[in-house]
């Protein structure tokens, strides 16, 4: 039963990734077709991101009221309807309207499924799930490119993705009874950083406090913001760095940056197997050090070919960080608050993805593209400091509770 539900969650993660990269792939044709200014694409992106952040922040309360299964069903239904709305949209105004439910649906299902998997499944599933998200994010532009190259119709691309989402809606509807059964039958308990079972200790009755008042939560939020900021910044400005600083042509630069995503996707697949032997904390630390090494390689005045290695190393380093931090949430802060904190973490992540790349763009536009690598190094270094400080706080808290 748990296996069937897990397969559905895997499908949901592919579905979650499919719309994420559609707008960028389709916008050059959409802009011409709708006679819209080029900056309108940025407005649509911001509207989707804003909806995602809002739904992530309130997801804890909604999920507690209705449960992960029902919220996932409704959220995917919202994204399916929104994508269908893109297909029918007669003007940019309708695209902006449809962007709101697209973002709201994505944020709720992302936070809900991440917490559900962190609570009821082992760590390797979290890594593989985010690998499947990468598959969905890669397939989206491929599907869109097929229709754009065939009949120059971005609308048909959105129609096909919407159809895939509606199929998942039906699957989720018929799987609703499974969610509660898996919860009741689940025997997976969450180990702490040292491998000890902690449900009983962490979830015992405590004073009513806000999740953000729990020690270490703010450090975790900063870590998520910085991680996603780094991931998105390398994605957005990596090619420009290679062209302006390393002297590559645009086509070569784009292909080299694509290897960065290969590193992330392949790294998460490999991480899933490594989690059988190595703890999340060790994988997070190793990933951060590896990513920092890759960024330093980009900074050094080495031949251009080393930049390809730098991007691949950054991708491999980033690969385990996000899924392992997500899976650690119930272990770090207790099952009682994990769903709300998971929503906050996803909101912080989307905030980093949305706002940090434009900030870096503003900085490099007033200085030089060479500052790009310095910013990446600083962000990763601060993320390491926050992560290690969080580990120290949790270790101290654990020792104090053992002494009692």
From TrEMBL:
Going by the entry's taxonomy, the superkingdom of the source organism is recorded as: Bacteria
The membrane topology noted for this protein in its Swiss-Prot or TrEMBL record is: Multi-pass membrane protein
Q: What is its main location?
A: membrane
Keywords (alphabetical) are: Membrane, Transmembrane, Transmembrane helix, Transport
Membrane-traversing stretches: 40-59, 71-88, 94-116, 128-148, 160-179, 217-237, 257-276, 370-387
Q: Which residues form the Major facilitator superfamily (MFS) profile domain?
A: 5-391
Say which family it is in.
Belongs to the major facilitator superfamily.
The protein's name in its UniProt record: MFS transporter
Q: Which organism is it from?
A: Oceanobacillus neutriphilus
Q: What is the lineage of its organism?
A: Bacteria, Bacillati, Bacillota, Bacilli, Bacillales
């Amino acid at each position: 039963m748990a296996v069937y539900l897990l397969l559905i969650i895997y499908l949901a993660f592919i579905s979650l990734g499919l719309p994420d990269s559609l707008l960028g792939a389709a916008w050059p044709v959409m802009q011409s077709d709708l006679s819209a200014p080029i900056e309108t694409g940025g407005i649509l992106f911001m509207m989707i991101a804003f909806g995602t952040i809002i739904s992530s922040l309130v997801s804890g309360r909604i999920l507690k009221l209705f449960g992960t299964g029902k919220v996932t069903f409704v959220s995917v239904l919202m994204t399916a309807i929104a994508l269908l709305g893109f297909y029918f949209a007669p003007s940019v105004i309708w695209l902006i309207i449809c962007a709101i439910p697209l973002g709201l649906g994505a944020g709720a299902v992302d936070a809900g499924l991440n917490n559900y998997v962190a609570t009821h499944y082992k760590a390797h599933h979290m890594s593989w799930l985010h690998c499947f998200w990468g598959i969905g994010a890669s397939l989206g532009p491929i599907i869109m490119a097929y229709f754009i190259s065939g009949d120059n119709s971005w609308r048909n691309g959105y129609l096909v993705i919407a159809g895939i989402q509606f199929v998942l809606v039906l699957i989720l509807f018929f799987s609703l009874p499974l969610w509660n059964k898996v919860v009741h039958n689940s025997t997976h308990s969450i180990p702490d950083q040292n491998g000890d079972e902690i449900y009983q200790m962490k979830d015992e009755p405590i004073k009513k406090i806000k999740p953000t008042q729990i020690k270490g939560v703010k450090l975790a939020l900063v870590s998520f913001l910085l991680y996603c900021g780094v991931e998105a910044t390398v994605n957005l400005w990596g090619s420009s760095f290679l062209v302006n600083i390393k002297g590559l042509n645009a086509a070569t630069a784009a292909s080299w940056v694509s290897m960065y995503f290969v590193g992330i996707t392949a790294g998460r697949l490999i991480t899933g197997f490594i989690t059988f032997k190595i703890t999340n904390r060790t994988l997070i630390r190793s990933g951060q050090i590896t990513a920092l090494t890759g960024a330093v390689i980009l900074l050094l005045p080495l031949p251009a070919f080393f930049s390809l290695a730098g991007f691949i190393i950054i991708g491999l380093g980033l690969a385990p960080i996000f899924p392992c931090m997500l899976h650690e949430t119930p272990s770090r802060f207790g099952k009682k608050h994990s769903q709300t904190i998971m929503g906050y973490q996803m909101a912080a992540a989307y905030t980093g993805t949305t706002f940090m790349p434009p900030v870096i763009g503003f900085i490099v536009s007033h200085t030089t593209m060479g500052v790009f690598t310095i910013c990446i190094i600083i962000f990763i270094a601060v993320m390491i400091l926050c992560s290690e400080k969080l580990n120290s706080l949790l270790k101290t808290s654990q020792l104090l509770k053992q002494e009692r």
